Model the fold of this input.
Amino acid sequence: MTTIKKVKWKPGTMIYPIPVAMVSCGTSVKDANIITIAWTGTMSSNPPYCYIGVRKSRYSYDIIRKTGEFVINLTSTKLVRAADWCGVKSGRDHAKFKEMKLTPTPSSAVAAPMILESPISIECRVKQMLELGSHDVFIAEVLAIHADERYLDKKTGALHLSKAGLVAYSHGQYYELGRNLGKFGFSVKKKK
Amino acid sequence: MTTIKKVKWKPGTMIYPIPVAMVSCGTSVKDANIITIAWTGTMSSNPPYCYIGVRKSRYSYDIIRKTGEFVINLTSTKLVRAADWCGVKSGRDHAKFKEMKLTPTPSSAVAAPMILESPISIECRVKQMLELGSHDVFIAEVLAIHADERYLDKKTGALHLSKAGLVAYSHGQYYELGRNLGKFGFSVKKKK
Done:
Protein backbone atom coordinates (compact mmCIF):
# COMPACT_ATOMS: atom_id res chain seq x y z
CA MET A 1 0.00 0.00 0.00
CA THR A 2 1.35 3.38 -1.03
CA THR A 3 0.98 6.18 1.45
CA ILE A 4 -0.09 9.27 -0.42
CA LYS A 5 0.62 12.65 1.09
CA LYS A 6 -0.93 15.79 -0.34
CA VAL A 7 0.69 19.19 0.20
CA LYS A 8 -1.40 22.36 0.36
CA TRP A 9 -0.72 25.13 -2.11
CA LYS A 10 -1.90 28.64 -2.65
CA PRO A 11 -4.93 29.03 -4.91
CA GLY A 12 -4.16 29.24 -8.62
CA THR A 13 -5.00 28.01 -12.10
CA MET A 14 -4.29 24.30 -12.15
CA ILE A 15 -6.99 22.64 -14.28
CA TYR A 16 -5.01 20.74 -16.95
CA PRO A 17 -4.59 19.56 -19.69
CA ILE A 18 -6.51 22.15 -21.68
CA PRO A 19 -7.09 23.01 -25.33
CA VAL A 20 -5.03 25.50 -27.34
CA ALA A 21 -7.51 27.80 -29.08
CA MET A 22 -6.30 30.06 -31.87
CA VAL A 23 -9.11 32.61 -31.73
CA SER A 24 -9.60 34.59 -34.92
CA CYS A 25 -11.55 37.84 -34.91
CA GLY A 26 -12.20 40.93 -37.02
CA THR A 27 -14.71 42.04 -39.61
CA SER A 28 -13.17 40.60 -42.79
CA VAL A 29 -10.23 38.64 -44.16
CA LYS A 30 -8.42 41.98 -44.49
CA ASP A 31 -8.38 43.05 -40.84
CA ALA A 32 -8.42 39.62 -39.17
CA ASN A 33 -6.33 39.02 -36.06
CA ILE A 34 -5.45 35.89 -34.05
CA ILE A 35 -5.09 35.56 -30.27
CA THR A 36 -4.18 32.24 -28.70
CA ILE A 37 -6.27 31.41 -25.65
CA ALA A 38 -5.94 28.72 -23.00
CA TRP A 39 -8.90 29.80 -20.87
CA THR A 40 -11.57 28.24 -23.04
CA GLY A 41 -14.00 25.32 -22.98
CA THR A 42 -17.50 24.05 -23.52
CA MET A 43 -20.13 25.18 -20.99
CA SER A 44 -23.29 23.46 -22.19
CA SER A 45 -24.09 20.85 -24.86
CA ASN A 46 -27.49 21.86 -26.16
CA PRO A 47 -27.57 24.55 -27.32
CA PRO A 48 -23.77 24.45 -27.54
CA TYR A 49 -22.22 27.20 -25.44
CA CYS A 50 -18.54 27.90 -24.93
CA TYR A 51 -16.37 30.69 -23.56
CA ILE A 52 -13.04 32.42 -23.85
CA GLY A 53 -11.31 34.38 -21.07
CA VAL A 54 -9.43 37.44 -22.40
CA ARG A 55 -7.45 40.17 -20.66
CA LYS A 56 -8.79 43.69 -21.28
CA SER A 57 -5.30 44.77 -22.39
CA ARG A 58 -5.21 42.40 -25.36
CA TYR A 59 -5.62 43.84 -28.87
CA SER A 60 -8.34 41.29 -29.67
CA TYR A 61 -10.37 42.23 -26.59
CA ASP A 62 -11.79 45.42 -28.12
CA ILE A 63 -12.39 43.70 -31.46
CA ILE A 64 -14.42 40.88 -29.89
CA ARG A 65 -16.19 43.31 -27.58
CA LYS A 66 -17.21 45.44 -30.57
CA THR A 67 -18.10 42.71 -33.08
CA GLY A 68 -19.50 40.18 -30.58
CA GLU A 69 -18.06 37.38 -32.71
CA PHE A 70 -15.02 35.14 -32.88
CA VAL A 71 -13.87 31.79 -34.27
CA ILE A 72 -12.11 29.14 -32.17
CA ASN A 73 -9.57 27.32 -34.37
CA LEU A 74 -8.09 24.19 -32.80
CA THR A 75 -4.32 23.82 -32.84
CA SER A 76 -2.64 20.83 -34.51
CA THR A 77 1.02 19.88 -34.06
CA LYS A 78 1.77 21.64 -37.36
CA LEU A 79 0.30 24.86 -35.97
CA VAL A 80 1.84 24.80 -32.49
CA ARG A 81 4.64 27.26 -33.30
CA ALA A 82 2.18 29.73 -34.84
CA ALA A 83 -0.19 29.25 -31.88
CA ASP A 84 2.57 29.99 -29.40
CA TRP A 85 3.68 33.03 -31.38
CA CYS A 86 0.11 34.37 -31.66
CA GLY A 87 -0.20 34.05 -27.88
CA VAL A 88 2.96 36.03 -27.21
CA LYS A 89 2.83 38.75 -29.90
CA SER A 90 0.23 41.50 -30.30
CA GLY A 91 -1.92 42.31 -33.30
CA ARG A 92 -1.06 45.95 -32.59
CA ASP A 93 2.45 45.30 -33.91
CA HIS A 94 2.03 42.34 -36.26
CA ALA A 95 -0.11 41.17 -39.16
CA LYS A 96 -0.39 37.72 -37.61
CA PHE A 97 -2.06 35.83 -40.46
CA LYS A 98 0.53 37.12 -42.93
CA GLU A 99 3.58 36.65 -40.72
CA MET A 100 2.56 33.10 -39.78
CA LYS A 101 1.60 32.29 -43.40
CA LEU A 102 -1.94 31.42 -42.37
CA THR A 103 -4.97 31.89 -44.61
CA PRO A 104 -7.93 33.92 -43.35
CA THR A 105 -11.05 32.37 -44.87
CA PRO A 106 -14.64 33.65 -44.74
CA SER A 107 -16.84 31.96 -42.15
CA SER A 108 -20.48 31.08 -42.73
CA ALA A 109 -22.36 32.70 -39.84
CA VAL A 110 -20.01 35.39 -38.51
CA ALA A 111 -17.89 38.09 -40.14
CA ALA A 112 -14.77 36.97 -38.27
CA PRO A 113 -12.73 34.80 -40.65
CA MET A 114 -11.49 31.34 -39.72
CA ILE A 115 -7.96 29.94 -40.07
CA LEU A 116 -7.97 27.63 -43.10
CA GLU A 117 -4.99 25.61 -41.82
CA SER A 118 -6.71 24.66 -38.54
CA PRO A 119 -8.36 21.21 -38.57
CA ILE A 120 -11.49 22.49 -36.78
CA SER A 121 -12.95 26.00 -36.77
CA ILE A 122 -15.84 26.86 -34.47
CA GLU A 123 -17.91 29.97 -35.23
CA CYS A 124 -19.14 31.72 -32.09
CA ARG A 125 -21.43 34.63 -31.26
CA VAL A 126 -21.15 36.30 -27.84
CA LYS A 127 -24.28 36.07 -25.72
CA GLN A 128 -23.04 37.30 -22.36
CA MET A 129 -19.98 38.87 -20.73
CA LEU A 130 -18.60 38.39 -17.22
CA GLU A 131 -15.93 40.50 -15.54
CA LEU A 132 -14.09 38.19 -13.16
CA GLY A 133 -10.80 39.98 -12.46
CA SER A 134 -7.72 39.65 -14.66
CA HIS A 135 -9.80 38.18 -17.46
CA ASP A 136 -13.19 39.03 -18.88
CA VAL A 137 -15.21 36.04 -20.04
CA PHE A 138 -17.06 36.05 -23.35
CA ILE A 139 -19.79 33.40 -23.23
CA ALA A 140 -20.83 32.47 -26.75
CA GLU A 141 -23.14 30.22 -28.69
CA VAL A 142 -21.60 27.92 -31.30
CA LEU A 143 -23.22 28.72 -34.65
CA ALA A 144 -21.30 26.45 -37.02
CA ILE A 145 -18.28 24.18 -37.23
CA HIS A 146 -15.93 23.63 -40.14
CA ALA A 147 -13.75 20.52 -40.33
CA ASP A 148 -10.84 19.77 -42.62
CA GLU A 149 -12.31 17.17 -44.97
CA ARG A 150 -9.18 15.02 -44.63
CA TYR A 151 -10.45 13.99 -41.18
CA LEU A 152 -13.93 13.03 -42.35
CA ASP A 153 -14.79 9.47 -43.28
CA LYS A 154 -15.82 9.62 -46.93
CA LYS A 155 -18.35 6.82 -46.53
CA THR A 156 -19.94 7.49 -43.13
CA GLY A 157 -19.24 11.20 -42.70
CA ALA A 158 -17.84 10.47 -39.23
CA LEU A 159 -15.16 12.80 -37.92
CA HIS A 160 -11.86 11.11 -37.05
CA LEU A 161 -10.57 13.88 -34.82
CA SER A 162 -7.74 11.66 -33.58
CA LYS A 163 -6.10 12.04 -37.01
CA ALA A 164 -5.96 15.83 -36.66
CA GLY A 165 -3.01 15.78 -34.27
CA LEU A 166 -4.52 18.14 -31.72
CA VAL A 167 -2.29 19.81 -29.15
CA ALA A 168 -2.91 19.96 -25.39
CA TYR A 169 -1.46 22.54 -23.01
CA SER A 170 -0.53 21.62 -19.46
CA HIS A 171 1.23 23.79 -16.89
CA GLY A 172 3.24 25.82 -19.38
CA GLN A 173 4.02 23.03 -21.87
CA TYR A 174 2.52 21.95 -25.18
CA TYR A 175 1.97 18.22 -25.76
CA GLU A 176 0.85 15.85 -28.47
CA LEU A 177 -1.89 13.45 -27.46
CA GLY A 178 -0.37 10.07 -26.65
CA ARG A 179 -1.65 6.57 -26.07
CA ASN A 180 -5.42 6.02 -26.28
CA LEU A 181 -6.69 4.84 -22.88
CA GLY A 182 -10.23 3.96 -23.86
CA LYS A 183 -13.55 5.28 -25.06
CA PHE A 184 -16.13 7.06 -22.90
CA GLY A 185 -18.06 4.31 -21.09
CA PHE A 186 -15.31 1.67 -21.39
CA SER A 187 -15.45 0.99 -17.63
CA VAL A 188 -18.98 -0.41 -17.85
CA LYS A 189 -18.79 -2.11 -21.22
CA LYS A 190 -19.46 -5.83 -21.05
CA LYS A 191 -16.69 -8.00 -22.43
CA LYS A 192 -17.81 -10.10 -25.39
CA MET B 1 1.22 23.24 -51.78
CA THR B 2 -1.58 21.33 -50.12
CA THR B 3 -5.09 22.40 -50.95
CA ILE B 4 -7.12 22.41 -47.77
CA LYS B 5 -10.87 22.07 -47.97
CA LYS B 6 -13.05 22.68 -44.97
CA VAL B 7 -16.51 21.14 -44.71
CA LYS B 8 -19.31 22.86 -42.80
CA TRP B 9 -20.94 21.05 -39.93
CA LYS B 10 -23.85 21.62 -37.66
CA PRO B 11 -23.07 23.48 -34.43
CA GLY B 12 -21.88 21.31 -31.54
CA THR B 13 -19.32 20.82 -28.80
CA MET B 14 -15.94 20.46 -30.46
CA ILE B 15 -13.38 22.23 -28.29
CA TYR B 16 -10.77 19.53 -27.58
CA PRO B 17 -8.65 18.16 -25.93
CA ILE B 18 -10.09 18.94 -22.51
CA PRO B 19 -9.40 17.95 -18.90
CA VAL B 20 -11.07 15.09 -17.05
CA ALA B 21 -12.29 16.50 -13.74
CA MET B 22 -13.38 14.12 -11.00
CA VAL B 23 -15.53 16.53 -9.03
CA SER B 24 -16.06 15.58 -5.40
CA CYS B 25 -18.87 17.11 -3.37
CA GLY B 26 -20.81 16.62 -0.15
CA THR B 27 -20.64 17.83 3.42
CA SER B 28 -18.20 15.30 4.91
CA VAL B 29 -16.12 12.22 4.15
CA LYS B 30 -19.21 10.16 5.04
CA ASP B 31 -21.61 11.46 2.37
CA ALA B 32 -19.12 12.42 -0.34
CA ASN B 33 -19.94 11.78 -4.00
CA ILE B 34 -17.95 12.02 -7.23
CA ILE B 35 -19.14 13.19 -10.65
CA THR B 36 -16.79 13.23 -13.62
CA ILE B 37 -17.04 16.41 -15.67
CA ALA B 38 -15.64 17.36 -19.06
CA TRP B 39 -17.21 20.81 -19.27
CA THR B 40 -14.70 22.56 -17.02
CA GLY B 41 -11.84 25.04 -17.27
CA THR B 42 -10.18 28.15 -15.94
CA MET B 43 -11.98 31.44 -16.58
CA SER B 44 -9.68 34.02 -15.01
CA SER B 45 -6.18 33.92 -13.50
CA ASN B 46 -6.30 36.45 -10.69
CA PRO B 47 -8.31 35.84 -8.63
CA PRO B 48 -8.44 32.28 -9.98
CA TYR B 49 -11.92 31.46 -11.27
CA CYS B 50 -13.07 28.23 -12.85
CA TYR B 51 -16.35 26.54 -13.75
CA ILE B 52 -18.10 23.24 -14.14
CA GLY B 53 -21.13 22.58 -16.35
CA VAL B 54 -23.57 20.09 -14.80
CA ARG B 55 -26.93 18.73 -15.95
CA LYS B 56 -29.79 19.42 -13.54
CA SER B 57 -30.66 15.71 -13.53
CA ARG B 58 -27.33 14.66 -12.03
CA TYR B 59 -27.23 13.55 -8.38
CA SER B 60 -24.36 15.93 -7.64
CA TYR B 61 -26.25 18.92 -9.05
CA ASP B 62 -28.45 19.37 -5.97
CA ILE B 63 -25.52 18.76 -3.62
CA ILE B 64 -23.39 21.45 -5.25
CA ARG B 65 -26.35 23.79 -5.53
CA LYS B 66 -27.06 23.38 -1.80
CA THR B 67 -23.50 23.43 -0.43
CA GLY B 68 -22.04 25.91 -2.96
CA GLU B 69 -18.78 23.97 -2.85
CA PHE B 70 -16.90 21.30 -4.78
CA VAL B 71 -13.39 19.99 -5.38
CA ILE B 72 -11.93 19.40 -8.85
CA ASN B 73 -9.62 16.37 -8.71
CA LEU B 74 -7.47 15.88 -11.82
CA THR B 75 -7.43 12.43 -13.41
CA SER B 76 -4.19 10.47 -13.83
CA THR B 77 -3.81 7.37 -16.00
CA LYS B 78 -4.19 5.26 -12.85
CA LEU B 79 -7.58 6.88 -12.19
CA VAL B 80 -9.01 6.84 -15.71
CA ARG B 81 -11.17 3.76 -15.18
CA ALA B 82 -12.64 5.21 -11.97
CA ALA B 83 -13.14 8.57 -13.69
CA ASP B 84 -15.04 6.95 -16.56
CA TRP B 85 -17.15 4.92 -14.14
CA CYS B 86 -17.97 7.98 -11.99
CA GLY B 87 -19.10 9.76 -15.16
CA VAL B 88 -21.47 6.96 -16.17
CA LYS B 89 -22.89 5.81 -12.82
CA SER B 90 -25.04 7.81 -10.39
CA GLY B 91 -24.42 8.53 -6.72
CA ARG B 92 -28.12 7.73 -6.21
CA ASP B 93 -27.29 4.05 -6.76
CA HIS B 94 -23.64 3.76 -5.78
CA ALA B 95 -21.23 4.69 -2.99
CA LYS B 96 -18.66 5.83 -5.53
CA PHE B 97 -15.68 6.39 -3.23
CA LYS B 98 -16.10 2.96 -1.68
CA GLU B 99 -16.81 1.07 -4.89
CA MET B 100 -13.84 2.65 -6.67
CA LYS B 101 -11.59 2.19 -3.59
CA LEU B 102 -10.90 5.91 -3.40
CA THR B 103 -10.20 7.78 -0.19
CA PRO B 104 -12.31 10.82 0.72
CA THR B 105 -10.02 13.21 2.59
CA PRO B 106 -10.94 16.45 4.38
CA SER B 107 -10.22 19.61 2.40
CA SER B 108 -8.87 22.81 3.98
CA ALA B 109 -11.33 25.51 2.94
CA VAL B 110 -14.51 23.66 1.96
CA ALA B 111 -16.54 20.86 3.56
CA ALA B 112 -16.50 18.81 0.35
CA PRO B 113 -13.75 16.20 0.69
CA MET B 114 -11.04 15.70 -1.91
CA ILE B 115 -9.93 12.45 -3.56
CA LEU B 116 -6.63 11.47 -1.95
CA GLU B 117 -5.52 9.40 -4.96
CA SER B 118 -5.80 12.33 -7.39
CA PRO B 119 -2.48 14.10 -8.08
CA ILE B 120 -4.07 17.57 -7.84
CA SER B 121 -7.18 18.63 -5.91
CA ILE B 122 -8.62 22.12 -6.36
CA GLU B 123 -10.99 23.45 -3.70
CA CYS B 124 -13.73 25.67 -5.16
CA ARG B 125 -16.53 27.85 -3.81
CA VAL B 126 -19.41 28.78 -6.13
CA LYS B 127 -19.77 32.52 -6.77
CA GLN B 128 -22.31 32.57 -9.57
CA MET B 129 -24.64 30.29 -11.52
CA LEU B 130 -25.69 30.44 -15.15
CA GLU B 131 -28.51 28.48 -16.78
CA LEU B 132 -27.48 27.89 -20.39
CA GLY B 133 -29.67 25.01 -21.56
CA SER B 134 -28.78 21.36 -21.06
CA HIS B 135 -26.14 22.30 -18.47
CA ASP B 136 -26.09 24.78 -15.64
CA VAL B 137 -22.73 26.41 -15.06
CA PHE B 138 -21.28 26.82 -11.57
CA ILE B 139 -18.67 29.58 -11.64
CA ALA B 140 -16.37 29.24 -8.65
CA GLU B 141 -13.35 30.79 -7.02
CA VAL B 142 -10.35 28.54 -6.35
CA LEU B 143 -9.64 28.65 -2.61
CA ALA B 144 -6.79 26.16 -2.26
CA ILE B 145 -4.87 23.49 -4.15
CA HIS B 146 -3.43 20.24 -2.85
CA ALA B 147 -0.69 18.42 -4.77
CA ASP B 148 0.64 14.91 -4.28
CA GLU B 149 4.07 15.56 -2.77
CA ARG B 150 5.65 12.99 -5.11
CA TYR B 151 5.35 15.58 -7.89
CA LEU B 152 6.97 18.39 -5.93
CA ASP B 153 10.69 19.08 -6.20
CA LYS B 154 12.05 18.62 -2.69
CA LYS B 155 14.68 21.32 -3.16
CA THR B 156 12.87 24.03 -5.09
CA GLY B 157 9.25 23.27 -4.27
CA ALA B 158 8.46 23.40 -8.00
CA LEU B 159 5.56 21.27 -9.23
CA HIS B 160 6.49 18.73 -11.92
CA LEU B 161 2.97 18.18 -13.19
CA SER B 162 4.28 16.26 -16.20
CA LYS B 163 5.13 13.38 -13.82
CA ALA B 164 1.51 13.10 -12.70
CA GLY B 165 0.38 11.32 -15.86
CA LEU B 166 -2.65 13.52 -16.48
CA VAL B 167 -5.38 12.34 -18.85
CA ALA B 168 -6.93 14.35 -21.67
CA TYR B 169 -10.36 13.76 -23.21
CA SER B 170 -10.98 14.36 -26.88
CA HIS B 171 -14.13 13.58 -28.87
CA GLY B 172 -15.19 10.61 -26.77
CA GLN B 173 -11.73 9.14 -26.10
CA TYR B 174 -9.31 9.30 -23.19
CA TYR B 175 -5.60 9.89 -23.94
CA GLU B 176 -2.28 10.04 -22.17
CA LEU B 177 -0.25 13.14 -22.88
CA GLY B 178 2.41 12.34 -25.46
CA ARG B 179 5.50 14.04 -26.82
CA ASN B 180 6.41 17.44 -25.39
CA LEU B 181 6.26 20.03 -28.20
CA GLY B 182 7.76 22.98 -26.35
CA LYS B 183 7.30 25.43 -23.54
CA PHE B 184 5.05 28.49 -23.65
CA GLY B 185 7.03 31.20 -25.47
CA PHE B 186 9.33 28.78 -27.33
CA SER B 187 8.50 30.42 -30.66
CA VAL B 188 10.19 33.68 -29.66
CA LYS B 189 13.03 32.33 -27.56
CA LYS B 190 16.45 33.30 -28.87
CA LYS B 191 18.73 30.39 -29.62
CA LYS B 192 21.89 30.41 -27.50
Chain B has one domain: 18-178.
